[in-house]
Amino acid sequence: xxxxxxxxxxxxxxxxxxxxxxxxxxxxxxxxxxxxxxxxxxxxxxxxxxxxxxxxxxxxxxxxxxxxxxxxxxxxxxxxxxxxxxxxxxxxxxxxxxxxxxxxxxxxxxxxxxxxxxxxxxxxxxxxxxxxxxxxxxxxxxxxxxxxxxxxxxxxxxxxxxxxxxxxxxxxxxxxxxxxxxxxxxxxxxxxxxxxxxxxxxxxxxxxxxxxxxxxxxxxxxxxxxxxxxxxxxxxxxxxxxxxxxxxxxxxxxxxxxxxxxxxxxxxxxxxxxxxxxxxxxxxxxxxxxxxxxxxxxxxxxxxxxxxxxxxxxxxxxxxxxxxxxxxxxxxxxxxxxxxxxxxxxxxxxxxxxxxxxxxxxxxxxxxxxxxxxxxxxxxxxxxxxxxxxxxxxxxxxxxxxxxxxxxxxxxxxxxxxxxxxxxxxxxxxxxxxxxxxxxxxxxxxxxxxxxxxxxxxxxxxxxxxxxxxxxxxxxxxxxxxxxxxxxxxxxxxxxxxxxxxxxxxxxxxxxxxxxxxxxxxxxxxxxxxxxxxxxxxxx
Length: 540
Prior knowledge:
Number of domains: 2
Radius of gyration: 24 Å
Signal peptide: 1-21
CATH superfamily of the largest domain: Alkaline Phosphatase, subunit A
Distance between the termini: 27 Å
Number of strands: 21
Structural class: alpha/beta
Low-confidence stretches: 1-20
InterPro entries: Alkaline_phosphatase_core_sf, Alkaline_phosphatase_prok, Phosphodiest/P_Trfase
Number of helices: 21
Strand content: 15-25%
Protein name: Alkaline phosphatase family protein
Pfam families: Phosphodiest
Keywords: Metal-binding, Phosphoprotein, Signal
CATH architecture of the largest domain: 3-Layer(aba) Sandwich
């Protein structure tokens, strides 16, 4: 064998050995309400030091998919987290929305509520993944390791932690009343000692009497004060910086934390504690840690995505991520950590702000107006009965018992209700249960997204799609939840362990994240996944 052939053989063996190696830790980061254009929009103010980067870890040192879009219309927190975790459409994983109605009682069902469990660290019934109808990437990792992989998730929101943690992870979230990180009897018999120590450490109170002021001179920001007049600041906040936190550790203070960058910092603090306590990334098998940063969603809803608050919050989150990555580099080595970043949904601007710039936009009272259709529906069928049982947008539910008693055909009632709802201000389109279950609507981009999110056991008899840039109430300044591009577009990035540096512009889906992680680790894919493997992440 020649020297050159021998050298090539040695190189091939080394390459093969490297390719077969496993990351020590998979870190999945979800930034709540991070629209796909926002990272490049604010990149100039992100940490630039090569040895310590936050979002630039993905933008400059990883594989960046710039055209990732959800393929469902219910672009909401629970639905997005479930899709990222399972690699499946909502029609498959079963999380139809944040809330839906019980078909028999009409009562609201919260996506992760589980009355068979109780909270640990707080009072009341708790949360679990009981409503999830598909396995997650973390579930498959647990199975592949024969239960030896350590799997944890943390978020301010329970649904942000529970749905990514899956059936076999251990999930923690934030209690707005006490500022504690809490969990559920689904995961533990009692709150672990380390979580209790964290709650008693004083970390949650270190922001008392702190102002949230701009971290940079105002002229350096991309956004401006232009939307300030249209904001709906949460309790305790004024319009405009600085935002002063209370000097008393009470319910108001702990609630206000979730609307400031300090909530993200506390989430990262707890994640670091989990790494230390469980020695994540130090064992024989690949471990998994999911962190969902919820604050951008709270800030974006109340101050708007075009606000100085939204931009400064992401600039500060960038620094928080840089510190987290530096910590993981010391503990595990970033070359041993496979990092994935995405978001559960995007967001639209405040409707009134868009109108001030000459765009068409609308704010109405859609939910209440749809409930009022009861009278029109009864009049049409000439009955003295309430035929609408419940409204949990985007779903409207008919009362099947009343329809049977009044001898009204269900399909006829659906069609008439859909026609009536289509005339409500702010409604763009309506779909009946019958057509969503019996027709192939894949030719229609909007209809296909509605069909992809339809869960027969949980969705309504009529599904409402709002007009573009339309809001259904005054519960927030800005919102999301539509099939339009500003809501479906999110980042999808990979960095760290063996991930090549490249940018991809072809359209992909967040469904692809769980599938790709499974392929990278060589494990079974989540059972109902509909995504595709992103081959660019494998091209060394």
